[in-house]
């Protein structure tokens, strides 16, 4: 009998656009400020640079030259401190590149499970750095000349200009990171862009000395627009006479046109929007995770990772040692598996050894496996999975024809019935993870042939994500989040929006109890090598994230 297809009419995302945005922004801001060392370091850096520049250019000569025969030092020093503060403010966003690349695998995993819309994640990334941009801009802008009278009544305009420059260049560098396949490529590309904007900012090479074939870099550089607007803000203030203003601007080939101040601010805002769009394109249309296949269809065999995984190797060693002693218990193991597979049996296990009845090796009778759990059948919708003649092919390395000639799966047929436990077994590299990735629609490259049915109907990615939880081989989580936060985030974003908040929280508590996560619920996930969750704890959390959905 064919079951109804759960969530066939459900929207792609469980929450409305703005409700989802609020949750994603809250999470990103929380994660950003949870890295105390990173926040503290950036604040100290801004303070040190501000104090350094303020003391270096303390009490500048207020009398600017009006001709070449006079001392040019007062003007040159002001240009120097302007360039230094603007460059530091602009390049403060370079520290976000490793953050983006570290979080990208987490984004891929959550995006594939329809946690949130990609545009909301991009917006949340931008908003999460605003508080730090405010702090850095305030600390740096107060050191711009050492004499507040230099900017007269335009200090807030100058401060706002530096803030917009900080935000726009940060957005540009994040976009660059989202388009980079690896941290090394991202660092190289960012270094090239940073060098270009510094050289063609209008200070090292003045506008009238830039070669015509490089002038396009100047007009595309956010630093050049910000520097020009900043220079006009300072040197057109009422702190200087008209003659001093004209000569100072002429010295660096800048035209006296105050419309460039607001034009520069508007251009930087537009630059920010374009960079956010570029980040969106990088997240949606480019994939550099390596686990689900790359966008170009190259060979990405996820089972190959198991061969060098120390955890998998250790597990295989233990299973090999135990295999001989378990042979005489095979009939009873089959009986226990049959009892577990019976849909009419009790709820799923919480894995308490005290609640499991061990089969008697001397007996050949079937043994019921009684289990306990705070979760029950009404919390889940049954679904039958069937796949027929499934093929998965990728491009062979070095094949210039670009054909999918290397088959990793060849005519695989099988099924998994609702209420049963189906084990997929095989040696490392046999294709287990590849088959699971194909069935879960996690392969983004290669060619898939065959038929996959869910409750008797063709598999649909959006619908399928509503009825399954896919626990991947690698445990991918935000390291700064706690165990409880990871589960709550999954439940709030993936469960239907008509379910009350209290009911979602109660369900998360049931998941925590079932998976024995209570002792570590408020513990940061972290990294295993740095004192974070162990492999076993991280795996239970990964299972919990899928159960909470």
From TrEMBL:
<feature type="transmembrane region" description="Helical">
    <location>
        <begin position="114"/>
        <end position="135"/>
    </location>
</feature>
<feature type="transmembrane region" description="Helical">
    <location>
        <begin position="213"/>
        <end position="240"/>
    </location>
</feature>
<feature type="domain" description="ABC-2 type transporter transmembrane">
    <location>
        <begin position="23"/>
        <end position="231"/>
    </location>
</feature>
<feature type="domain" description="ABC transporter">
    <location>
        <begin position="410"/>
        <end position="545"/>
    </location>
</feature>
<feature type="transmembrane region" description="Helical">
    <location>
        <begin position="155"/>
        <end position="176"/>
    </location>
</feature>
<feature type="transmembrane region" description="Helical">
    <location>
        <begin position="43"/>
        <end position="60"/>
    </location>
</feature>
<feature type="region of interest" description="Disordered">
    <location>
        <begin position="338"/>
        <end position="369"/>
    </location>
</feature>
<dbReference type="GO" id="GO:0005524">
    <property type="term" value="F:ATP binding"/>
</dbReference>
<dbReference type="Pfam" id="PF01061">
    <property type="entry name" value="ABC2_membrane"/>
</dbReference>
<feature type="transmembrane region" description="Helical">
    <location>
        <begin position="188"/>
        <end position="207"/>
    </location>
</feature>
<dbReference type="GO" id="GO:0016887">
    <property type="term" value="F:ATP hydrolysis activity"/>
</dbReference>
<dbReference type="GO" id="GO:0016020">
    <property type="term" value="C:membrane"/>
</dbReference>
<keyword id="KW-0472">Membrane</keyword>
<dbReference type="Pfam" id="PF00005">
    <property type="entry name" value="ABC_tran"/>
</dbReference>
<feature type="transmembrane region" description="Helical">
    <location>
        <begin position="260"/>
        <end position="286"/>
    </location>
</feature>
<dbReference type="GO" id="GO:0140359">
    <property type="term" value="F:ABC-type transporter activity"/>
</dbReference>
<dbReference type="InterPro" id="IPR013525">
    <property type="entry name" value="ABC2_TM"/>
</dbReference>
<keyword id="KW-1133">Transmembrane helix</keyword>
<feature type="transmembrane region" description="Helical">
    <location>
        <begin position="80"/>
        <end position="102"/>
    </location>
</feature>
<feature type="compositionally biased region" description="Low complexity">
    <location>
        <begin position="338"/>
        <end position="355"/>
    </location>
</feature>
<protein>
    <submittedName>
        <fullName>ABC transporter G family member 44</fullName>
    </submittedName>
</protein>
<keyword id="KW-0813">Transport</keyword>
<dbReference type="InterPro" id="IPR027417">
    <property type="entry name" value="P-loop_NTPase"/>
</dbReference>
<dbReference type="InterPro" id="IPR003439">
    <property type="entry name" value="ABC_transporter-like_ATP-bd"/>
</dbReference>
<keyword id="KW-0812">Transmembrane</keyword>
């Amino acid at each position: 009998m064919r079951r109804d297809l759960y969530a066939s009419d459900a929207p792609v995302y469980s929450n409305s656009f703005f409700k989802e945005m609020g949750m994603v922004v809250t999470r990103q801001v929380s994660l950003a400020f949870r890295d105390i060392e990173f926040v503290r370091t950036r604040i100290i850096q801004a303070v040190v640079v501000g104090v350094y520049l303020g003391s270096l250019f303390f009490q500048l000569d207020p009398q600017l030259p009006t001709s070449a025969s006079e001392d040019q030092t007062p003007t040159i020093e002001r240009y120097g401190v302007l360039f230094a503060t603007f460059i530091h403010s602009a390049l403060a966003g370079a520290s976000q590149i490793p953050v983006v690349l570290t979080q990208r695998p987490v984004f891929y995993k959550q995006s594939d499970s329809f946690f949130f819309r990609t545009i909301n994640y991009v917006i949340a990334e931008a908003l999460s750095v605003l508080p730090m941009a405010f702090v850095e801009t305030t600390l740096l802008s107060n050191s711009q000349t050492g004499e507040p009278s230099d900017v007269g009544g335009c200090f807030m305009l100058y401060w706002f200009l530096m803030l917009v420059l900080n935000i726009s260049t940060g957005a540009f560098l994040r976009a660059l990171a989202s388009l980079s396949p690896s941290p090394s490529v991202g660092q190289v590309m960012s270094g090239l862009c940073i060098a270009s904007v510094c050289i063609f900012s209008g200070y090292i090479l003045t506008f009238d000395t830039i070669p015509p074939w490089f002038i396009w870099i100047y007009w595309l550089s956010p630093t050049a627009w910000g520097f020009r607007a900043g220079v006009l803000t300072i040197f057109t203030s009422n702190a200087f006479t008209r003659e001093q203003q004209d000569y100072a601007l002429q010295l660096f080939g800048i035209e006296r046109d105050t419309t460039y101040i607001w034009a520069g601010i508007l251009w930087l805002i537009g630059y920010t929007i374009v960079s956010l769009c570029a980040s969106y394109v990088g997240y949606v249309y480019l994939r550099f995770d390596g686990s689900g296949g790359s966008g170009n269809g190259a060979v990405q065999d996820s089972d190959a990772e198991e061969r060098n995984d120390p955890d998998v190797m250790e597990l295989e060693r233990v299973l090999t040692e135990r295999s001989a002693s378990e042979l005489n218990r095979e009939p009873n193991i089959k009986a226990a598996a049959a009892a577990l597979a019976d849909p009419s049996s009790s709820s799923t296990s919480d894995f308490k050894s005290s609640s499991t009845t061990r089969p008697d090796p001397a007996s050949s009778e079937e043994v019921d496996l009684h289990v306990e759990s705070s979760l029950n059948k009404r919390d889940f919708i049954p679904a039958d999975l069937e796949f027929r003649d499934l093929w998965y092919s990728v491009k062979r390395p070095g094949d210039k024809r670009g054909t999918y000639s290397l088959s990793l799966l060849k005519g695989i047929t099988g099924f998994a019935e609702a209420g049963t436990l189906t084990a997929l077994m095989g040696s490392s590299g046999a294709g287990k993870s590849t088959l699971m990735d194909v069935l879960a629609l996690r392969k983004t490259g290669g060619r898939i042939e065959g038929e996959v049915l869910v409750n008797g109907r063709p598999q649909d990615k959006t619908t399928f994500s509503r009825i399954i939880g896919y626990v991947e081989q690698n445990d991918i989580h935000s390291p700064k989040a706690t165990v409880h936060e990871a589960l709550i985030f999954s439940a709030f974003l993936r469960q239907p929006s008509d379910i009350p908040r209290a009911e979602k929280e109660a369900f998360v508590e049931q998941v925590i109890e079932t998976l024995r996560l209570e002792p570590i619920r408020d513990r940061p996930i972290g990294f295993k090598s740095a004192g974070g969750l162990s492999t076993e704890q991280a795996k239970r959390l990964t299972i919990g994230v899928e159960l909470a959905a």
